[in-house]
Write a structure and sequence with these properties.
By secondary structure, this protein is an alpha+beta fold. It contains 11 helices and 10 strands. The N and C termini lie far apart (45 Å). The structure holds flavin-adenine dinucleotide. Flavin-adenine dinucleotide binds next to strand 1, strand 3 and helix 11.
Length: 393
Protein backbone atom coordinates (compact mmCIF):
# COMPACT_ATOMS: atom_id res chain seq x y z
CA UNK A 1 0.00 0.00 0.00
CA UNK A 2 1.39 3.40 -0.96
CA UNK A 3 -0.12 6.60 0.38
CA UNK A 4 2.36 8.90 -1.37
CA UNK A 5 1.37 11.11 -4.28
CA UNK A 6 3.59 10.68 -7.35
CA UNK A 7 5.77 13.58 -8.54
CA UNK A 8 3.25 14.17 -11.38
CA UNK A 9 0.39 14.29 -8.89
CA UNK A 10 2.28 16.74 -6.68
CA UNK A 11 2.88 18.97 -9.72
CA UNK A 12 -0.79 18.72 -10.70
CA UNK A 13 -1.84 19.67 -7.17
CA UNK A 14 0.47 22.70 -7.26
CA UNK A 15 -0.91 23.80 -10.63
CA UNK A 16 -4.51 23.41 -9.41
CA UNK A 17 -3.76 25.26 -6.17
CA UNK A 18 -2.22 28.18 -8.07
CA UNK A 19 -5.27 28.35 -10.31
CA UNK A 20 -7.55 28.23 -7.25
CA UNK A 21 -5.72 31.01 -5.40
CA UNK A 22 -5.06 33.28 -8.40
CA UNK A 23 -8.16 32.81 -10.56
CA UNK A 24 -10.97 31.47 -8.37
CA UNK A 25 -10.59 32.87 -4.85
CA UNK A 26 -10.47 36.57 -5.85
CA UNK A 27 -13.86 36.33 -7.61
CA UNK A 28 -15.61 33.75 -5.41
CA UNK A 29 -17.61 36.24 -3.29
CA UNK A 30 -18.47 38.40 -6.32
CA UNK A 31 -20.04 35.51 -8.24
CA UNK A 32 -21.80 34.26 -5.11
CA UNK A 33 -23.44 37.64 -4.59
CA UNK A 34 -24.31 38.35 -8.21
CA UNK A 35 -25.34 34.72 -8.91
CA UNK A 36 -23.73 35.26 -12.30
CA UNK A 37 -22.33 32.27 -14.16
CA UNK A 38 -18.49 32.33 -13.91
CA UNK A 39 -17.95 31.75 -17.63
CA UNK A 40 -14.57 33.61 -17.83
CA UNK A 41 -13.17 31.48 -14.98
CA UNK A 42 -14.39 28.24 -16.59
CA UNK A 43 -12.83 29.34 -19.88
CA UNK A 44 -9.51 29.97 -18.11
CA UNK A 45 -9.73 26.48 -16.59
CA UNK A 46 -10.18 25.10 -20.12
CA UNK A 47 -7.18 27.11 -21.38
CA UNK A 48 -5.05 25.71 -18.54
CA UNK A 49 -6.14 22.13 -19.23
CA UNK A 50 -8.13 21.88 -15.99
CA UNK A 51 -11.50 21.25 -17.65
CA UNK A 52 -12.38 17.80 -19.09
CA UNK A 53 -9.84 16.08 -16.83
CA UNK A 54 -11.16 12.58 -17.46
CA UNK A 55 -11.10 12.66 -21.27
CA UNK A 56 -8.64 9.96 -22.43
CA UNK A 57 -5.48 10.91 -24.35
CA UNK A 58 -6.65 9.17 -27.54
CA UNK A 59 -9.47 11.72 -27.76
CA UNK A 60 -7.20 14.69 -27.13
CA UNK A 61 -7.76 14.93 -23.36
CA UNK A 62 -5.22 14.89 -20.53
CA UNK A 63 -6.21 11.30 -19.68
CA UNK A 64 -6.09 11.85 -15.96
CA UNK A 65 -7.19 9.09 -13.64
CA UNK A 66 -9.96 9.70 -11.15
CA UNK A 67 -7.46 10.08 -8.32
CA UNK A 68 -5.67 12.83 -10.29
CA UNK A 69 -9.03 14.53 -10.89
CA UNK A 70 -9.88 14.38 -7.18
CA UNK A 71 -6.59 16.13 -6.36
CA UNK A 72 -7.52 18.99 -8.72
CA UNK A 73 -11.14 19.12 -7.56
CA UNK A 74 -10.18 19.50 -3.88
CA UNK A 75 -7.95 22.48 -4.66
CA UNK A 76 -10.49 24.35 -6.80
CA UNK A 77 -13.32 23.63 -4.37
CA UNK A 78 -11.24 25.00 -1.49
CA UNK A 79 -11.42 28.41 -3.22
CA UNK A 80 -15.09 28.25 -4.27
CA UNK A 81 -17.35 25.19 -4.23
CA UNK A 82 -19.82 26.85 -6.65
CA UNK A 83 -17.21 27.65 -9.28
CA UNK A 84 -15.71 24.17 -8.78
CA UNK A 85 -19.12 22.59 -9.47
CA UNK A 86 -19.41 24.70 -12.63
CA UNK A 87 -15.95 23.63 -13.82
CA UNK A 88 -16.27 19.94 -13.07
CA UNK A 89 -19.79 19.56 -14.44
CA UNK A 90 -18.07 18.89 -17.78
CA UNK A 91 -16.65 15.71 -16.23
CA UNK A 92 -20.15 14.60 -15.20
CA UNK A 93 -21.62 15.48 -18.61
CA UNK A 94 -18.86 13.75 -20.57
CA UNK A 95 -18.50 10.65 -18.38
CA UNK A 96 -21.43 8.73 -19.97
CA UNK A 97 -19.71 9.20 -23.36
CA UNK A 98 -16.32 8.14 -21.96
CA UNK A 99 -17.92 5.02 -20.45
CA UNK A 100 -20.63 4.12 -22.95
CA UNK A 101 -20.08 6.05 -26.18
CA UNK A 102 -19.14 4.29 -29.43
CA UNK A 103 -15.85 5.11 -31.15
CA UNK A 104 -17.42 7.65 -33.53
CA UNK A 105 -19.19 9.48 -30.67
CA UNK A 106 -15.99 9.61 -28.62
CA UNK A 107 -13.93 10.91 -31.55
CA UNK A 108 -16.53 13.53 -32.42
CA UNK A 109 -17.73 14.86 -29.05
CA UNK A 110 -14.75 14.31 -26.73
CA UNK A 111 -12.30 15.82 -29.22
CA UNK A 112 -14.61 18.80 -29.66
CA UNK A 113 -14.80 19.38 -25.89
CA UNK A 114 -11.01 19.45 -25.66
CA UNK A 115 -10.33 21.53 -28.77
CA UNK A 116 -13.09 24.10 -28.41
CA UNK A 117 -14.45 25.74 -25.29
CA UNK A 118 -17.72 23.77 -25.01
CA UNK A 119 -19.84 22.83 -22.01
CA UNK A 120 -21.62 19.53 -21.53
CA UNK A 121 -24.20 18.90 -18.79
CA UNK A 122 -25.91 15.78 -17.43
CA UNK A 123 -29.63 15.18 -16.98
CA UNK A 124 -31.43 12.38 -15.23
CA UNK A 125 -33.49 14.42 -12.72
CA UNK A 126 -37.00 15.72 -13.38
CA UNK A 127 -39.43 17.94 -11.45
CA UNK A 128 -41.13 14.87 -9.95
CA UNK A 129 -38.10 12.66 -9.39
CA UNK A 130 -34.45 12.83 -8.43
CA UNK A 131 -33.53 9.85 -6.23
CA UNK A 132 -35.73 7.36 -8.06
CA UNK A 133 -33.86 7.46 -11.38
CA UNK A 134 -35.84 4.46 -12.68
CA UNK A 135 -39.02 6.49 -12.13
CA UNK A 136 -38.25 9.07 -14.82
CA UNK A 137 -41.07 10.13 -17.13
CA UNK A 138 -39.29 12.00 -19.93
CA UNK A 139 -40.38 10.05 -23.00
CA UNK A 140 -38.15 8.70 -25.80
CA UNK A 141 -40.07 7.44 -28.82
CA UNK A 142 -38.41 5.61 -31.67
CA UNK A 143 -38.90 7.17 -35.12
CA UNK A 144 -37.03 5.14 -37.71
CA UNK A 145 -33.44 5.06 -36.45
CA UNK A 146 -33.92 8.35 -34.58
CA UNK A 147 -35.64 9.05 -31.26
CA UNK A 148 -38.05 11.86 -30.35
CA UNK A 149 -37.84 13.23 -26.79
CA UNK A 150 -40.70 14.81 -24.86
CA UNK A 151 -40.64 15.86 -21.19
CA UNK A 152 -38.91 18.04 -18.60
CA UNK A 153 -35.58 17.80 -16.86
CA UNK A 154 -34.90 19.79 -13.70
CA UNK A 155 -31.95 21.03 -11.60
CA UNK A 156 -29.59 20.75 -14.54
CA UNK A 157 -26.20 22.17 -13.59
CA UNK A 158 -24.67 24.40 -16.31
CA UNK A 159 -27.81 23.65 -18.37
CA UNK A 160 -28.35 27.29 -19.34
CA UNK A 161 -24.91 27.48 -20.98
CA UNK A 162 -24.36 23.90 -22.13
CA UNK A 163 -23.68 23.07 -25.77
CA UNK A 164 -24.54 19.43 -25.12
CA UNK A 165 -26.45 17.53 -22.44
CA UNK A 166 -26.27 13.78 -21.88
CA UNK A 167 -29.97 13.17 -21.37
CA UNK A 168 -31.64 10.06 -19.98
CA UNK A 169 -35.22 9.24 -21.05
CA UNK A 170 -37.55 6.24 -21.10
CA UNK A 171 -39.42 4.43 -23.85
CA UNK A 172 -42.08 3.53 -21.26
CA UNK A 173 -42.18 4.70 -17.61
CA UNK A 174 -43.90 1.40 -16.68
CA UNK A 175 -40.75 -0.48 -17.68
CA UNK A 176 -38.79 1.39 -14.95
CA UNK A 177 -35.01 0.85 -15.30
CA UNK A 178 -35.52 -1.52 -18.25
CA UNK A 179 -36.97 1.31 -20.36
CA UNK A 180 -34.25 3.92 -19.89
CA UNK A 181 -32.04 5.04 -22.74
CA UNK A 182 -29.39 7.78 -23.00
CA UNK A 183 -28.78 10.40 -25.66
CA UNK A 184 -26.36 13.16 -26.58
CA UNK A 185 -28.53 16.24 -26.89
CA UNK A 186 -27.33 19.23 -28.89
CA UNK A 187 -28.98 22.11 -27.00
CA UNK A 188 -29.41 24.04 -30.27
CA UNK A 189 -31.87 21.36 -31.48
CA UNK A 190 -35.40 22.49 -32.25
CA UNK A 191 -37.77 21.98 -29.29
CA UNK A 192 -35.17 22.46 -26.52
CA UNK A 193 -36.15 25.13 -23.98
CA UNK A 194 -33.52 26.07 -21.40
CA UNK A 195 -35.11 27.63 -18.31
CA UNK A 196 -34.00 30.62 -16.25
CA UNK A 197 -31.39 30.26 -13.50
CA UNK A 198 -33.03 28.91 -10.32
CA UNK A 199 -31.83 30.80 -7.17
CA UNK A 200 -30.26 28.60 -4.47
CA UNK A 201 -29.10 28.52 -0.83
CA UNK A 202 -25.45 28.04 -1.77
CA UNK A 203 -23.14 27.38 -4.70
CA UNK A 204 -24.94 30.37 -6.19
CA UNK A 205 -22.52 30.87 -9.05
CA UNK A 206 -23.33 27.43 -10.43
CA UNK A 207 -26.06 27.62 -13.02
CA UNK A 208 -29.12 25.45 -12.28
CA UNK A 209 -32.00 25.31 -14.78
CA UNK A 210 -34.89 23.28 -16.09
CA UNK A 211 -34.70 21.83 -19.59
CA UNK A 212 -37.93 21.44 -21.55
CA UNK A 213 -37.98 18.97 -24.42
CA UNK A 214 -40.79 19.17 -26.97
CA UNK A 215 -40.61 16.83 -29.96
CA UNK A 216 -36.82 17.01 -29.94
CA UNK A 217 -35.31 14.78 -32.60
CA UNK A 218 -32.18 12.87 -31.60
CA UNK A 219 -30.42 11.55 -34.71
CA UNK A 220 -29.28 7.94 -34.53
CA UNK A 221 -25.60 8.94 -34.25
CA UNK A 222 -26.42 10.61 -30.91
CA UNK A 223 -28.05 7.57 -29.29
CA UNK A 224 -25.67 6.81 -26.44
CA UNK A 225 -27.35 3.85 -24.77
CA UNK A 226 -30.25 1.91 -26.22
CA UNK A 227 -33.39 1.34 -24.10
CA UNK A 228 -32.58 -0.91 -21.17
CA UNK A 229 -28.91 0.19 -21.09
CA UNK A 230 -29.37 3.78 -19.91
CA UNK A 231 -29.99 3.06 -16.23
CA UNK A 232 -26.77 1.05 -15.86
CA UNK A 233 -24.87 3.79 -17.70
CA UNK A 234 -26.22 6.41 -15.28
CA UNK A 235 -25.18 4.28 -12.27
CA UNK A 236 -21.71 3.61 -13.73
CA UNK A 237 -21.35 7.34 -14.29
CA UNK A 238 -22.23 8.10 -10.65
CA UNK A 239 -19.65 5.55 -9.44
CA UNK A 240 -17.05 7.56 -11.32
CA UNK A 241 -18.25 11.00 -10.25
CA UNK A 242 -19.19 10.43 -6.58
CA UNK A 243 -15.53 10.24 -5.48
CA UNK A 244 -15.17 13.75 -6.94
CA UNK A 245 -18.02 14.91 -4.68
CA UNK A 246 -15.94 13.55 -1.79
CA UNK A 247 -13.06 15.70 -3.07
CA UNK A 248 -15.31 18.78 -3.41
CA UNK A 249 -16.35 18.26 0.21
CA UNK A 250 -12.72 17.90 1.39
CA UNK A 251 -11.75 21.16 -0.31
CA UNK A 252 -14.67 23.09 1.17
CA UNK A 253 -14.09 21.59 4.65
CA UNK A 254 -10.33 22.20 4.50
CA UNK A 255 -10.85 25.92 3.89
CA UNK A 256 -13.38 26.18 6.72
CA UNK A 257 -10.82 24.47 9.01
CA UNK A 258 -7.97 26.74 7.89
CA UNK A 259 -10.02 29.90 8.47
CA UNK A 260 -10.94 28.50 11.92
CA UNK A 261 -7.28 27.88 12.86
CA UNK A 262 -6.40 31.42 11.77
CA UNK A 263 -9.30 33.01 13.64
CA UNK A 264 -8.73 30.95 16.81
CA UNK A 265 -5.19 32.29 17.03
CA UNK A 266 -6.30 35.92 16.62
CA UNK A 267 -9.59 36.28 18.48
CA UNK A 268 -9.13 36.90 22.19
CA UNK A 269 -11.66 36.38 24.99
CA UNK A 270 -11.00 36.67 28.72
CA UNK A 271 -7.53 37.95 27.85
CA UNK A 272 -6.37 34.93 25.83
CA UNK A 273 -6.70 33.73 22.21
CA UNK A 274 -9.64 31.32 21.93
CA UNK A 275 -7.23 28.80 20.38
CA UNK A 276 -5.75 28.41 23.88
CA UNK A 277 -8.96 26.85 25.15
CA UNK A 278 -9.15 23.06 24.95
CA UNK A 279 -12.76 23.08 23.77
CA UNK A 280 -11.73 25.08 20.67
CA UNK A 281 -8.63 22.90 20.15
CA UNK A 282 -10.89 19.84 20.24
CA UNK A 283 -13.11 21.31 17.52
CA UNK A 284 -10.10 21.94 15.30
CA UNK A 285 -8.60 18.51 16.00
CA UNK A 286 -11.93 16.91 15.04
CA UNK A 287 -12.04 18.93 11.83
CA UNK A 288 -8.55 17.79 10.86
CA UNK A 289 -9.05 14.10 11.64
CA UNK A 290 -12.43 13.98 9.86
CA UNK A 291 -11.07 15.68 6.74
CA UNK A 292 -8.15 13.23 6.70
CA UNK A 293 -10.56 10.29 6.91
CA UNK A 294 -12.82 11.77 4.20
CA UNK A 295 -9.85 12.28 1.89
CA UNK A 296 -8.60 8.72 2.42
CA UNK A 297 -12.04 7.28 1.60
CA UNK A 298 -12.25 9.55 -1.44
CA UNK A 299 -8.83 8.51 -2.70
CA UNK A 300 -9.67 4.81 -2.14
CA UNK A 301 -12.88 5.10 -4.18
CA UNK A 302 -11.02 6.94 -6.95
CA UNK A 303 -8.12 4.49 -6.88
CA UNK A 304 -10.49 1.53 -7.22
CA UNK A 305 -12.04 3.14 -10.32
CA UNK A 306 -8.56 3.75 -11.75
CA UNK A 307 -7.75 0.05 -11.26
CA UNK A 308 -10.86 -0.87 -13.25
CA UNK A 309 -12.54 -2.27 -10.13
CA UNK A 310 -16.25 -1.92 -9.35
CA UNK A 311 -16.19 1.07 -6.97
CA UNK A 312 -19.94 1.43 -6.51
CA UNK A 313 -19.73 0.74 -2.76
CA UNK A 314 -16.58 2.73 -2.02
CA UNK A 315 -17.85 5.74 -4.00
CA UNK A 316 -21.08 5.76 -1.96
CA UNK A 317 -19.12 5.51 1.30
CA UNK A 318 -16.77 8.32 0.26
CA UNK A 319 -19.59 10.62 -0.85
CA UNK A 320 -21.78 9.99 2.20
CA UNK A 321 -18.91 10.32 4.68
CA UNK A 322 -17.24 13.37 3.14
CA UNK A 323 -20.49 15.28 2.69
CA UNK A 324 -21.38 14.71 6.38
CA UNK A 325 -17.87 15.81 7.36
CA UNK A 326 -18.08 19.05 5.40
CA UNK A 327 -21.48 19.85 6.96
CA UNK A 328 -20.06 19.28 10.49
CA UNK A 329 -16.84 21.15 9.80
CA UNK A 330 -18.52 24.23 8.30
CA UNK A 331 -21.06 24.27 11.17
CA UNK A 332 -18.25 24.10 13.73
CA UNK A 333 -16.29 26.76 11.82
CA UNK A 334 -19.18 29.19 12.26
CA UNK A 335 -19.16 28.28 15.98
CA UNK A 336 -15.43 29.04 16.27
CA UNK A 337 -16.07 32.45 14.67
CA UNK A 338 -18.99 33.08 17.06
CA UNK A 339 -21.21 35.97 15.93
CA UNK A 340 -18.80 36.91 13.15
CA UNK A 341 -19.26 33.43 11.69
CA UNK A 342 -22.90 34.24 11.12
CA UNK A 343 -22.13 37.43 9.21
CA UNK A 344 -21.19 37.69 5.57
CA UNK A 345 -18.00 39.50 6.71
CA UNK A 346 -16.00 36.27 6.84
CA UNK A 347 -15.91 33.41 4.31
CA UNK A 348 -17.20 30.62 6.58
CA UNK A 349 -20.83 31.69 6.13
CA UNK A 350 -20.55 31.05 2.37
CA UNK A 351 -18.76 27.71 2.84
CA UNK A 352 -21.54 26.58 5.21
CA UNK A 353 -24.20 27.40 2.59
CA UNK A 354 -22.15 25.82 -0.20
CA UNK A 355 -21.52 22.62 1.78
CA UNK A 356 -25.15 21.53 2.06
CA UNK A 357 -25.41 20.61 -1.61
CA UNK A 358 -22.98 17.69 -1.26
CA UNK A 359 -25.53 15.76 0.82
CA UNK A 360 -28.08 16.22 -1.97
CA UNK A 361 -26.84 16.08 -5.57
CA UNK A 362 -25.56 12.97 -7.35
CA UNK A 363 -27.54 10.81 -4.92
CA UNK A 364 -28.58 12.04 -1.49
CA UNK A 365 -26.90 10.85 1.70
CA UNK A 366 -29.94 8.61 2.32
CA UNK A 367 -29.54 6.97 -1.10
CA UNK A 368 -25.82 6.36 -0.43
CA UNK A 369 -26.79 4.64 2.82
CA UNK A 370 -29.23 2.42 0.93
CA UNK A 371 -26.35 1.32 -1.33
CA UNK A 372 -24.11 0.69 1.69
CA UNK A 373 -26.73 -1.13 3.77
CA UNK A 374 -27.69 -3.33 0.80
CA UNK A 375 -24.07 -4.52 0.66
CA UNK A 376 -23.68 -4.88 4.42
CA UNK A 377 -26.94 -6.80 4.94
CA UNK A 378 -26.62 -9.12 1.91
CA UNK A 379 -23.02 -9.50 0.70
CA UNK A 380 -20.72 -8.63 3.58
CA UNK A 381 -18.63 -11.65 4.67
CA UNK A 382 -18.78 -12.20 8.45
CA UNK A 383 -15.66 -13.16 10.37
CA UNK A 384 -17.60 -14.21 13.49
CA UNK A 385 -19.65 -17.45 13.51
CA UNK A 386 -23.38 -16.85 13.02
CA UNK A 387 -25.56 -16.70 16.12
CA UNK A 388 -27.46 -19.86 15.15
CA UNK A 389 -30.52 -20.65 13.08
CA UNK A 390 -33.16 -19.86 15.67
CA UNK A 391 -35.32 -16.77 15.16
CA UNK A 392 -34.84 -14.31 17.97
CA UNK A 393 -38.24 -13.34 19.37
C1 LIG B 1 -28.06 22.52 -7.05
C2 LIG B 1 -28.45 21.19 -7.63
C3 LIG B 1 -27.82 20.77 -8.80
C4 LIG B 1 -28.20 19.56 -9.38
N1 LIG B 1 -27.64 19.19 -10.58
C5 LIG B 1 -28.16 18.11 -11.25
C6 LIG B 1 -27.70 17.80 -12.58
O1 LIG B 1 -26.82 18.46 -13.14
N2 LIG B 1 -28.29 16.76 -13.22
C7 LIG B 1 -29.28 16.00 -12.65
O2 LIG B 1 -29.76 15.07 -13.28
N3 LIG B 1 -29.72 16.27 -11.38
C8 LIG B 1 -29.19 17.32 -10.69
N4 LIG B 1 -29.64 17.61 -9.42
C9 LIG B 1 -30.73 16.81 -8.85
C10 LIG B 1 -30.30 15.96 -7.66
O3 LIG B 1 -29.54 14.88 -8.09
C11 LIG B 1 -31.57 15.57 -6.90
O4 LIG B 1 -32.08 16.73 -6.28
C12 LIG B 1 -31.29 14.50 -5.87
O5 LIG B 1 -30.96 13.29 -6.48
C13 LIG B 1 -32.49 14.27 -4.93
O6 LIG B 1 -33.66 14.14 -5.64
P1 LIG B 1 -34.97 14.97 -5.25
O7 LIG B 1 -34.53 16.38 -5.07
O8 LIG B 1 -36.03 14.66 -6.21
O9 LIG B 1 -35.36 14.44 -3.81
P2 LIG B 1 -36.31 13.18 -3.53
O10 LIG B 1 -35.85 12.02 -4.32
O11 LIG B 1 -37.72 13.62 -3.66
O12 LIG B 1 -35.99 12.91 -1.99
C14 LIG B 1 -36.50 13.73 -0.94
C15 LIG B 1 -35.94 13.20 0.36
O13 LIG B 1 -36.35 11.84 0.57
C16 LIG B 1 -35.21 11.01 0.70
N5 LIG B 1 -35.49 9.73 0.06
C17 LIG B 1 -35.89 9.51 -1.21
N6 LIG B 1 -36.06 8.20 -1.43
C18 LIG B 1 -35.72 7.57 -0.28
C19 LIG B 1 -35.66 6.20 0.12
N7 LIG B 1 -35.94 5.21 -0.72
N8 LIG B 1 -35.29 5.93 1.38
C20 LIG B 1 -34.97 6.92 2.25
N9 LIG B 1 -35.01 8.22 1.93
C21 LIG B 1 -35.36 8.56 0.66
C22 LIG B 1 -34.09 11.76 0.01
O14 LIG B 1 -32.82 11.33 0.49
C23 LIG B 1 -34.42 13.18 0.40
O15 LIG B 1 -33.96 13.42 1.71
C24 LIG B 1 -29.21 18.77 -8.78
C25 LIG B 1 -29.79 19.20 -7.58
C26 LIG B 1 -29.44 20.39 -7.01
C27 LIG B 1 -30.10 20.84 -5.74
Amino acid sequence: MDFMLTEDQKALKKKAREFAINEVLPVARKYDESEEFPLPVIKKAWEKGLLNLGIPKEYGGPGFGLLDSCIVVEEISSACPGIATSIFDNNLGAEPIVIGGNEEQKQRILNELVNEFKLIAFATSEPTMGSDVAGMKCKAEKDGDDFILNGNKFWITNGGYADYITVFATIDPEKKHKGIAAFILDTKSEGVKLGKHIPKLGQRSSNTVSVGLKDVRIPKENVLARPGRGFVLAMQTFSHTRPAIGAFACGCARSAMEYSIDYAQKRETFGRPIGNYQVIQEKIANMYKDIEAARLLTYKAAWEADQGMDNNLSSSIAKAFASDVVMNVTTEAIQVFGGYGYLRTYPVEKLFRDAKLYQIYEGTSEIQRIVISRFVMKQYQHAMPFLGKKRIQ
